[in-house]
Specification:
It is found in: Membrane. By secondary structure, the protein is an all-alpha fold. It contains 6 helices and 2 strands. The radius of gyration is 20 Å and the shape is elongated.
Length: 168
């Protein structure tokens, strides 16, 4: 029995993919809330144009505009990372399905690829990344965001390695 299956018959790791998509949109919701709190009105008949930097800049204070841009960029980066996350999850599910009786360290493992740990770590690192991206405006501290990005990407790449190891 792999890490993702329960008595309900649901594959929870597979559900982590749409959960990450929803998670990815949270910075956009935050961006909208800070614009709204600054009195900016979005034209919902053409929201992308209404929210373009050229349309927002100068209509809200510079600090609000900067925070808005960082939140939108965090959302964009989340969505850019979605294929990497989804592929790592799917590779691990495939590895677990094709190798249900894998033995690691002489004992049967219910999570031969460490998928549950990967998913939890991914969400934790990406949450920290989002907070860092949105909150850190100081260039000298922005390396924190970069380290978190590299950590998340490294986790996914390592997950591919673990899936490949299980598949042999």
């Amino acid at each position: 029995m792999s890490s993702g299956f329960t008595a309900t018959g649901l594959n929870y790791p597979l559900l982590a993919i749409p959960a990450y998509y929803v998670f990815s949109v949270v910075p956009h919701a935050y961006a909208m809330s800070i614009l709204k709190s600054a009195g900016y009105k979005v034209n919902n008949s053409n929201p992308k144009a209404s929210l373009s930097p050229a349309n927002v800049q100068g209509k809200v204070p510079d600090a609000v505009f900067s925070a808005y841009q960082r939140a939108e960029n965090a959302q964009n980066n989340n969505l850019e990372q979605l294929p990497l996350f989804a592929a790592a999850v799917l590779a691990s599910i495939l590895a677990e399905r094709l190798s249900p009786s894998i033995k690691i360290g002489g004992t049967g493992s219910l999570d031969p690829t460490g998928l549950a740990t990967f998913i939890g770590a991914w969400f934790a690192v990406r949450a920290a990344y989002n907070v860092a991206y949105i909150q850190i405006a100081d260039h000298s501290k922005s390396f924190i965001r970069s380290v978190l990005w590299m950590t998340g990407s490294g986790l996914a790449i390592y997950q591919f390695y673990k899936a490949a190891q299980v598949l042999g």
